[in-house]
Amino acid sequence: MLRTGICGTDLHILRWDDWAASAIAAPLIPGHEFYGEVVEVGPGVHDIAVGDRVSGEGHIVCGTCRNCRAGRRQMCIRTIGLGLQRDGAFAEYLALPATNVWVHHSEVTPELGAIFDPLGNAVHTALTYPLVGEDVLVTACGPIGLMAIAVARHAGARFITATDVSAPRLEMARRMGADEVVDVSVRDIRDAQQALGMREGFDIGFEMSGAPSALPAMIDNMNHGGRIAMLGLPSAGFGVDWGKLVTHMLTIKGIYGREMFETWNAMGAMLQTSATLRDAIGRVIAEVVPARDGERGFAAAESAGTGKIILDWTEL
């Protein structure tokens, strides 16, 4: 192991809250965002060699259910989560099925490789619908929302508006490519539409927060026929104006994880060919902390700043 990212899931495990107690098969080693070097391959493994620099898909699938057999592995009904139900990446070594390993291009740094998992969530969300010339609304500017902004800009969106309640995150959203930002605690999203000269609402929405107010606000600001990709996971139910969804002919699609392995291919291709995108995604990394100072790294991640915390496992 060379680098690992600290995810919000890992913070839940550290706190051992009700979710962790119900979801985690303890005792186990957490961690599912990683970049490492292959030191051994099993018999029958092809296209992966000792010395390769790799990350890996953290959803380990059965291979035999209907979705797996149809090539929709991300929809496997028997998915096992790395670092959740199986020992994960916060260790010097990790064993992973060869089918889950992704070999990186040389342009991908260890730090970028360590965030391919959350970047994959952003890419899966952002590329759900065609973006060229479309007006995009992104609700929530955590690391995944910020990366989705950068991907949307790279993929040809026209205007991008981002919302949050954190001034530092909104400033980072501008740096990632947002044309307008809205602190929804003091402004209305329609203000951004007016500032950009929009007259018909947003074509595409990325709901990244799970906040009860976010999806209803997004629906209120979509153009007729608008399409929403929803990654944010609500902690409780909330009301939605289903009448507007029907009469405005909106589409909402749930997003979970990454498409295996089209999302990975898209990530690798975009980063290989675009230094601009590599630089933008790299801005999401707030700090690289020696693994021996892991407690400090987790404390930094818990502070909920604008970026990702990476642990460097070459410094134990």
TrEMBL record:
Residue stretches spanning the membrane: none
Highest rank taxon of the organism: Bacteria
Keyword hit for Signal: no
Ranges of residues in domain Alcohol dehydrogenase-like C-terminal: 143-271
Coiled-coil stretches: none
Cofactor needs: Zn(2+)
Keyword Methyltransferase set for record: no
InterPro entries registered for this protein in UniProt: ADH-like_C, ADH-like_N, ADH_Zn_CS, GroES-like_sf, NAD(P)-bd_dom_sf, Zn_alcohol_dh
Molecular function in Gene Ontology: oxidoreductase activity; zinc ion binding
Limits of the Alcohol dehydrogenase-like N-terminal domain: 3-102
Any single Pfam family the record assigns to this protein: ADH_N
Entry keyword set: Metal-binding, Oxidoreductase, Zinc
Similarity annotation: Belongs to the zinc-containing alcohol dehydrogenase family.
Protein name (record): L-threonine 3-dehydrogenase
Organism the protein comes from: Microbacterium maritypicum (Microbacterium liquefaciens)
